Amino acid sequence: MSFPGSTFHPGSTPGTQEINTADTPSAEHRRSANFNPDDYIIPWVGLPSFDREPHSDEMKQSCNRLYKAAVKGDWIMAKQIINEDETNSILGLNITYGKYTTLHVAAGAPHVHFVNQLLEMMATRPEYRKYLLRLKDGRGNTAFCLAAAAGSIEIIKTMMAHDPSLQGRLGGEGKTPLYMATLFGHEQMASYLYGLYVEPVPRGEDLLGVFFSCINTGLYGLAAEVLRQHPSFALKRDAEHSKTALHLLAEKPSAFTCRPSSEICMRLERRGCPAHALVKALWRSVTTNEEFAELVKTPTHLLFDALKSGNSEFVTTLVHYYPALLWEKDSENHTIIHAAVSLRQANVCKLIHEIGLIKNVILALKDDRKNTMLHLAARLAPKSQLNKWSGAALRMQHELKWFEDVKRILPPSYIDMKNSDDQTAQEVFSSAHAELLKEAEKWMNDAAKSCMVVSSLLVSALFTTGITVALGGNNSSDHHLKRVSYQFFIISDAVALFMGLIATLMFFYILTSRYAEKDFLEDLPSKLLKGLIFLFISIIALMTTFSTVFFIAYGVKNALPYLVLLSAGVALVVFFKLLLPFGQEIRASTTSKSLFEPSHN
Description:
With 601 residues, the chain is mostly helical. It is built from 30 helices and 2 strands. It has helices at residues 27-31, 57-72, 75-83, 102-108, 112-121, 126-134, 143-150, 153-162, 177-183, 187-196, 204-216, 220-229, 245-250, 266-270, 274-287, 292-297, 302-308, 312-321, 336-343, 346-349, 359-363, 373-377, 383-386, 392-409, 425-432, 434-472, 478-481, 484-511, 523-554, 560-591; strands spanning 41-42, 47-48.
């Protein structure tokens, strides 16, 4: 099968003239008097380069089969389809929607072996191969751009071996392959392509887009490397939000979780987390600018943006570099420390211990509505902070701890001070947490009821068992009563009974509590934790009692008791794993140190 009009014949030598790889001519240009179709003819195929659609039904079926083979990476099937056309011109046709050629599909998949074989197939026709490599899809992307977006360095290297200019050819919307690699977060690919580029390629404006793309996708090490060569980028703003790099980082709490970086950024990694190194470099560039104060506050204040995003690490990092930032205020006249208290950012609040003599000055500041720091602590925490705790009771406990910790560091005269609404901090707390208090009461009540049902059933069963065995023991022989297994049964039954009884009393205490605000600070959570511990010990003893019965009945030489013991052990392990996280959370919430205790780091 061959295309009509083809001038290529098997065995002939391909033409050596340069191919016109200009963009597809528009319909208006094709209708104009200056349009010459011969300018777009591929000499050894005899087809116009802009006419890439299959016309015959037979060719459409071949394109469909070739597309399926390219998607799957089935080179054997693809080779058969390609060879059906002696000119191989099907490789230059659009085989699916979006004007994707075979090379586009295989490179975007990405199938390394498929691409290697396809390009090797064109070894005797280098100009046609170069033409295929430079073809663009419907969005203006070459196959090289799609390979960069897919993160396949092997395909990139193979393509560049045949056409080194591909790295500088722009794709859709005038974006470079490097930009596409960063857009999809392929760090190794982006670092590799960036290492290949030499100024003026990519152009400064293109590289600025790459810089912001690196920050948006978490390639902080590469962003720092770009900034090192272009310090002025620290003052630039992204086109979408008109924000500086520091503003973007302020809204990324995950940026300060260190992870391995590529080889190009090993120097930065030795200095710590790539994001920390990037922030330090950005801050150094920004502070040397005369418009430093305006850059920090425009379009919004980056420190308060960071606090709202929960990025306390970003704030503490900048404050360590520039302590005067502690005096910065937001629209409500809140300092960073005041905003951190309101937003429950403990790491930022701990900075109060590192500011020396001005500590008392900052603690004494009030906002525009005469709210003290204690009034701000009395407000309900953001949902993102409340949701860190699994139950309403623990959330209430955490809120109370915040309030009490702030009260502890303030001067006594500020505790009963009223704001412009004539409310004390305690009144603000009670009003703001009224709904949470109701939820905490219901949660604690339901938890205690559920646990009490279990412990009551255990106590009832164990009491019955103990009485039955004790009375039945009068009819047993002395030899039977002196057996170790029988005595072990009695002891474990007694331990299970009394531990279950204590757990029941703990849960009963919770159910009869008054559920006042202060009760959730320590009393109720600690009683719940103790009840769970006693309940768990009771269940362990119960399983021991149950397993011992089989040793008494079948003896130690029979395998059945050991099988029962193993099953009981599995049940205990499952119960322990289910209960442990909840117990640890209650313990951590109840016994944790002051939220404002200074860090030892």
